[in-house]
Amino acid sequence: MKCLINPKLRRSLLLLTPILFLALLSGCGGKTVSAAGSGGVNMPEVAHTATERPTQQLTATKSPVSGSTATPTPATSRTPAAATADWKSWPVLPTVSAEMQDVYRLGLEKGNDPHAFSVLGDCQSLPEAFLGPYDSDPSTVAALPDYLQETVDNFSGSFDRYSPTVKDGTTAGALLWGEWNDNKEKQCQPGETPLDCELRVHRPSIVIIHIGTHWETRNYRYLTIIVEKIIEHGAVPVLATKADNRELDERVNQDIADLAQEFDLPIWNFWATMQHMPNDGIYLNSTWELTDEAKEIHRLSALEALDAVWRAVR
Length: 314
Description:
Layout: H1 7-16, E1 34-35, E2 41-42, H2 98-110, E3 113-121, H3 133-136, H4 138-142, H5 146-154, H6 194-202, E4 204-210, H7 219-233, E5 236-240, H8 251-263, E6 267-268, H9 270-273, H10 292-313
Parallel strand pairs: 3-4, 4-5, 5-6
Antiparallel strand pairs: 1-2
Helix pairs in contact: 1-7, 5-10, 7-8
């Protein structure tokens, strides 16, 4: 499908040119964080057939200054886009627009690593619960089809590694807050946010946004800032839907669909892979935790999504 470049994406591409990609899964136990309005923080709280998403352009908002550590401004209430109301029928695997392919190429010219991807997420994104076995367990890799083994080989070292952007309780706001950065490997600069440090140190060419359920109104604004920073870095953001519906009205997945539409981003519709599972792949005594079988599907589906994006941009 040929798409017009929307104003936000055009601005991000222009930021790159002079120098030459939810899964939002269910939230985990433990503390979560969301950056508050100015100057503070609040601590509380399966079909794979491709179909086209309708084209929509939304009103652009101002991008944050590159490298800024200022607290994001909360958004006002937002009306979901009518064009994305059918997100449940979207395919599981992402497609990549020509504009995102350009972002990827410009990022390589800036020095991004074509063999590196990053994950932004909570406890269900930790390597041991998610993609780590593709680095640590040869038998898991050997059981994959050849094309996915090729993908694992290309991104070797990115599956089972420490990242300041993966931590129990992480939310979109936390990724933009320097104090949330535990900096375990001492590679981050003083006050550097988890997101800024990850982009600078690991230099990924693809970024999977895999943050836990957090449905405050301002969350959409935080996700917008994250997407803009990733595009400015020259990586392709990959959004994902989630399996659970802790918020009871599916607003989180709707937000993800709207954001994907707004920026013409690849979206991994993980929700669709769980619809054949009892209780949508979630333990009956939990509102978010995936069963062991669901975790296996989750891991493989994420690898297939990474493979689809990589093959589209390389």
